[in-house]
Design goal:
The complex is a heterodimer of chains A (595) and B (606). Chain A is an alpha/beta fold and 595 residues long. Chain A is elongated and about 120 Å long. Chain B has 606 residues and is of the alpha/beta class. Chain B contains 22 helices and 12 strands. The radius of gyration of chain B is 36 Å and the shape is elongated. Chain B starts with a helix and ends with a helix. The relative contact order of chain B is 0.08. Classes of the chains: A alpha/beta (595), B alpha/beta (606). Chain B: Pfam families: ABC_membrane, ABC_tran. Chain B: This is ABC transporter ATP-binding protein. Chain B: It is found in: Cell membrane.
Chain lengths: 595, 606
């Protein structure tokens, strides 16, 4: 999660993504209608105000010149404006609330949909890309969208309507002056494009520099121990300062050029103001306009310019939001895993008999991994999977748990084809301990009860005790209520491992999958763990992945894997006698220990 | 700077930037001057416009109208130039401050010991140095370009209004404080929810992060529904706060608009009769209306800065936390191992000969005590240990026995509370990093490779090593075969974190990297555990053959890895429980015997 995409990367298909984004907002029909109605009325009222104030001014002036008999029209107008303002104020509050409802509901649903999508994606989706990238889509991108949406929606809609209202009123007062003001629009658009075009290469350089700097920081920090131990602080700092200066130089330019957008549009607005002041002044002098009209007109010029400035300053935000939306939609559109069958198979018993029948699998089309594997595993027996690092030992686990689907052949559990079972039913029968000791941010008790949230405290403690984790947990300051968090919860790898073992124990599965579970628990802790494991394995079918031969010697069947394939299969004695890969592995282990 | 901007700066931002802005004082002063000029330029327009109406229009003086129009155009040009200058200085200052903050953070983190580093964790430190600084940078930029104009426009507007008509000025003088109070009220009402919102966003993101990293466990334990509910609760909580914030913003917008329109009405209502009485001219009234509009725009712009403030405040707090962490280890005096260290302690272990002579490659720990801050018990209670050239000293023990801490003390990633770590008689506290690195080669538990090629990684400890030495090291580490098998050999590019090689391969490259550096003392921190047993044995055999005269400290979990060590130190709960060879320890140490038993099947253990 450390590296982030440069904010403001361009969307590849701006129009399509923008449309889809609007369609999602459109689902909030009720509040959206309210937003529209309120915006029209509030903007309408505020558009009338300058005109009415102008009339009031003219009424005063008319009285002063003796053209009007009384001041009461002026007072009436002012009273009306005050009343309208009060109504518009209330309307604006309601509008803000409605806008919030629309955008926040849309953001809520987008998060909800993305999270639900994560649950439906096949594991291959997660395995195929860096986790940080997936994470960035569901967190940074959605945050960016939600944050931008509200601001933009409020401003965009009222700006557009304010703009239209101002143009209409200007045209009503003086078509000539309105033309003068509108003539500045193409110039403004050109200026916006010019600044945008000038800023783009600087932004690219800035993003590139940011990427380089962040990359260097990431490396220097994740490798902190090595940089220190190898005495490379000076070199690392040197490289850092180079990247840092480069980022500074490019960032100043990018910020400056893009920051010019606001003064540029203000300037053009002011030019329009000056033109109106001069041309309007001449028209008033010639009697074509009244003072009140020129007063109103100047206010409309401001009302006209503000949206232009707003639009210019939000252009970058909109682009970045649409680029984020595109990435989120990319996630939402990804292929999902097949749905569970309508009429799922149900094993008639829960004994833990597993049969591989001509099972074949490959991750890549042209690289066969498991070909025609047949294996009968009786209830309560242990299958050990051995082989060097990277031999593909986790593939079997992936298949058994249906993280990945077989290409051909079947795997049955207690007589039922796992492909015909619901995934939930299959997985409830299997307890798993992975090498990666994933625990979520909750208490230790909650983590142990992860597979059975309804378990009582007694059951949790009993499970911990069975796998020899109870003592370790009790030495922690809060015992079972110690909260685990991401940053340094003070648990060692071994202790985390014990918790995951207790977690698997508590679900009382008929089948166990132990994926190198013991490799990071050190020797003495492991001894305790193994006693617990022995208890755990009793009466359960176990698939154990381990490097250490001593832990798997008692296995009923040993599968020896090399380069993703099963090269040997048999009992310890059979395989020793066969003198193949297993015999070689065995020699390496015991030549070292037992002389 | 006027008062209002001070309330705007989040409290944590002030201490963070105080002192750091000093080098930028001249350019900030210039920036403020430019902002003043551009504010005056903006405010001059209504005044000149008033002149056109009152003097040009009324008299029908076309020449005057054009002249004043020219002045307005000039004011506009001055304004845009000043504004552009302010944007430039604002960019320089904010990006410069960002650069300085990043440099300060990087330098500070580099000096952290393993313990201080672990307190934050790498991902968090990376975010703090990159994203958090970016937040500050952006806020400073907006502060300097948008926020400061609001008070200038407010004060300037009143001054200019006074020039037009003193009696009407009180409308402005009343409207501006009302606006300011309204803004202040809304902002103070928003502070709580904003911080809450940040917390809720973090919570949602945490759940999502856990769902992605724990996907296999979640599916295996069939907890999709429970996770969905957990997420739903976090999402609902976030949406609730977001709506509250949205409502507050609505009140702000509505009140700002209402106040300014009512002020306009007041201007006309009070100005009208004054015009009728001949006390004031129509142009002045138009100018007043325009001042109001300009001030409103400035306040709205300033408001957009406040939207960023809560995030920046959190970021500033996180940055400050790092900068306020004083590293426990400071660089020692630059002395080589030849120089005399502090008075050596006499209670060195039995195997320790005299401190100042003998072949190089001696490592001695004497009476080392180390506790992590806040811990009740020290991790190491007076550990003595000796490693001699040509010998292998192994350390074995259970989780929490202090093995990794011991390694970190040798590499000076931590520094002992009591006792000393000496290399060839010199206390490591008196050695500079470079000479310590030349003496000690660390092969860490988690083999981390830097992005670059295999060759650049191998040369990490000695940039001058030739290819022959690289291959020699690869051979010993049993990595030559797979590197040869790669299409680009040692020029193969390794992704960040070494993602293109497997765990076992990475570990072997890490061993080779230490070999290339040719240190006097090797420290293997459980470096063989990622290797399968066959490779483990082959690597150790090759090391025995080639590293005859160097000293080796091996921390391991497998008995097979350390069985042939010259000296095995059994560490238990931070104390040396026993020292001896495998055979001696099997007979004499109950702890060691237990460990052996756990790893061997009965017939082999006997």
């Amino acid at each position: 999660m450390s590296m982030q995409q440069a904010p403001g990367q361009r969307a590849t298909d701006f129009a399509a993504t923008g449309k889809r984004l609007l369609a999602r907002l459109g689902r909030e029909r009720g509040p959206l209608t309210a937003v529209f109605v309120l915006t029209v009325s509030v903007t309408g009222l505020s558009t009338l105000t300058p005109m009415l104030l102008g009339r009031a001014t003219d009424a005063f002036l008319g009285f002063a010149r003796g053209e009007a008999a009384s001041l009461s029209p002026a007072w009436w107008i002012l009273g009306a404006v005050a009343a309208m303002t009060a109504v518009a104020g209330v309307g604006q509050v309601l509008l803000g609330r409605a806008t919030t409802a629309v955008t926040q509901r849309a953001a809520f649903r987008l998060r909800e949909d993305s999270e639900a999508k994560l649950a439906r994606l096949p594991l291959s989706y997660f395995d195929a890309r860096p986790r940080g990238e997936v994470l960035s889509r569901v967190t940074n991108d959605i945050d960016n969208l939600a944050q931008t949406a509200q601001g933009i929606m409020t401003r965009l809609l009222s700006s557009m309507l304010g703009l239209i209202g101002a143009v209409v009123m200007m045209a009503v007062i003086s078509p000539l002056l309105a033309l003068v003001v509108l003539a500045t629009v193409p110039v403004t658009l050109w200026a916006v494009r010019w600044v945008g075009g000038r800023a783009q290469p600087h932004f690219k350089r800035q993003w590139a520099a940011t990427g380089n700097l962040n990359g260097h920081i990431e490396e220097a920090f994740t490798g902190h121990e090595l940089v220190t131990a190898f005495g490379r602080h000076a070199e690392s700092a040197q490289a850092f300062h180079e990247h840092n200066s480069e980022l500074y130089t490019s960032a100043v330019k990018a910020q400056f050029v893009s920051g010019l957008m606001a003064p540029a549009t203000t300037f053009l607005g002011n030019v329009a103001y000056v033109l109106v002041a001069v041309v309007g002044g001449l028209r008033v002098a010639s009697g074509a306009l009244t003072i009140g009209e020129i007063q109103a007109f100047i206010q409309y010029v401001m009302q006209f310019n503000q949206p232009v400035t707003t639009l210019a300053s939000t252009a970058g935000q909109i682009q970045s939001a649409v680029a984020s939306a595109e990435r989120v939609f990319g996630l939402l559109d990804a292929d999902e895993q097949s749905a569970d069958t309508e009429d799922p198979a149900q094993p008639e018993e829960d004994a833990g008999r597993v049969v591989f029948n001509g099972a074949s699998f490959r991750y890549k089309e042209d690289e066969p991994l498991i070909e025609d594997l047949s294996l009968k595993v009786e209830p309560g027996t242990t299958v050990a999977i051995v082989g060097p690092t990277g031999a593909g030992k986790t593939t079997l686990v992936n298949l058994l748990l249906r993280f990945y689907e077989l290409r051909s052949g079947t795997i049955t559990v207690d007589g039922a084809d796992i492909a015909a079972m619901t995934r939930a039913d299959l997985r409830r029968r299997i307890g798993m301990v992975l090498q990666d000791t994933w625990l979520f941010g909750g208490t230790i008790a909650e983590n142990i009860a992860y597979g059975r949230p309804e378990a009582t405290r007694e059951e949790v403690v009993a499970a911990a005790r069975a796998v020899q984790a109870d003592h370790l947990i009790r030495t922690l300051p809060e015992g079972y209520d110690t909260v685990l968090d991401d940053e340094g919860d003070g648990l060692s790898a071994g202790e985390r491992q014990l918790i995951t073992i207790a977690r698997a124990f508590l679900v009382e599965p008929s089948i166990l999958v132990l994926d190198e579970a013991t490799s990071s628990v050190d020797t003495r802790t492991e001894m305790l763990v193994q006693q617990g494991m022995a208890t755990l394995r009793q009466g359960r079918t176990s698939f154990v992945i381990a490097h250490r031969l001593s832990t798997i010697r008692d296995a009923d069947v040993i599968l020896v894997m090399e380069e993703g394939r099963i090269v040997e299969q048999g009992s310890h004695k059979e395989l020793l006698n066969a003198g193949g890969a297993y015999a070689r592995l065995h020699r390496a282990q015991f030549a070292a220990i037992a002389t | 700077m006027p008062n209002r901007s001070r309330t705007a700066s989040p409290p944590t931002l002030v201490p963070l930037l105080k002192g750091r802005v000093r080098p930028y004082a001249p350019q900030i002063t210039l920036l403020l001057a430019l902002q003043l000029v551009q504010a005056l330029g903006l405010l001059l327009l209504p005044a000149l416009n008033a002149d056109i109406v009152d003097h040009g229009v009324v008299r029908g003086d076309t020449g005057y109208i054009l002249r004043q129009g020219g002045l307005m155009l000039a004011a506009t040009l001055v304004q845009v130039t000043a504004a552009a200058g302010a944007v430039y200085l604002g960019s320089k200052t904010s990006m410069g401050l960002g650069r300085d903050l990043r440099a300060a953070l990087f330098t500070r983190v580099q000096g952290f010991s393993a313990e201080e580093f672990g307190r934050f964790g790498a991902p968090s430190l990376i975010t703090r140095t990159t994203n958090d600084v970016q937040q500050i940078q952006m806020l400073v930029f907006m502060l300097l370009t948008l926020l400061v104009t609001a008070p200038l426009m407010g004060v300037g507007g009143i001054v200019m209004a006074l020039r037009q008509d003193a009696a009407l000025t009180w409308v402005l003088a009343a409207a501006i404080p009302v606006l300011v109070v309204a803004v202040a009220l809304v902002i103070s009402a928003m502070t709580g929810p904003s911080q809450l919102m940040q917390g809720r966003i973090d919570e949602v993101n945490r759940v999502l992060r856990e769902q992605i990293t724990g996907i296999r466990v979640i599916r295996a334990f069939v907890r999709e529904r429970g996770e969905h509910e957990r997420f739903g609760a976090a999402n609902t909580a976030l949406t609730g706060v977001a709506r509250r914030l949205g409502h507050l913003q609505a009140y702000f917008g509505a009140s700002a608009m209402t106040v300014s329109v009512l002020a306009s009405v007041a201007v006309v209502a009070l100005g009208g009769p004054r015009i009728v009485d001949g006390d004031m001219q129509a142009g002045a009234m138009i100018a007043f209306l325009n001042y109001l509009a300009q001030i409103l725009i400035a306040v709205m712009m300033a408001m957009s800065v406040f939207v960023l403030a809560p995030r920046a405040r959190v970021a500033a707090g996180r940055i400050k936390e790092v900068l306020d962490t004083e590293p426990a280890i400071t660089e020692g005096a630059v002395t080589g191992p030849a120089a005399a260290g502090p008075a050596p302690r006499a209670d060195a272990p039995a195997a320790s000969p005299s401190q100042d002579d003998g072949p190089p490659g001696r490592l001695d720990l004497s009476g080392v005590v180390f506790s992590y801050p806040g811990a009740e018990e020290p991790v190491l209670h007076g550990v003595d240990l000796a490693v001699r050239p040509g010998e292998t000293t192994a350390v074995i023990g259970s989780t929490g026995a202090g093995k990794t801490t011991l390694v970190k003390l040798v590499a000076r990633l931590l520094t002992p509370d009591e006792g000393s770590v000496r290399i060839d008689g010199t206390d490591v506290r008196d050695m500079d990093r470079r000479s310590l690195a030349e003496a000690v080669g660390l092969i860490p538990q988690r083999a981390h490779l830097f992005s670059g090629t295999i060759a650049s990684n191998l040369r990490y400890g000695d940039p001058g090593a030739d290819d022959e030495r690289l291959w020699q090291a690869l051979e010993i580490a049993q990595a030559a075969d797979f590197v040869r098998g790669l299409p680009d050999g040692t020029d193969t590019v390794i992704g960040q974190g070494g993602t293109t090689v497997s765990g076992g391969q990475r570990q072997r490259l890490a061993i080779a990297r230490a070999l290339v550096a040719r240190p006097r003392i090797y420290v293997f921190d459980d470096a063989f555990s990622a290797l399968d047993t066959a490779t483990d044995a082959a690597v150790r055999a090759a090391l025995d053959e080639h590293l005859g005269d160097t000293a080796r400290l091996v921390v391991a979990q497998r008995v097979s890895t350390i069985r042939s060590a010259d000296r095995i130190v059994v560490l238990d709960a931070g104390r040396v429980e026993a020292v001896g060879t495998h055979d001696e320890l099997v007979a004499s140490s109950a702890t060691y015997a237990e460990i052996v038993d756990s790893q061997l099947v009965p017939e082999e253990a006997s």
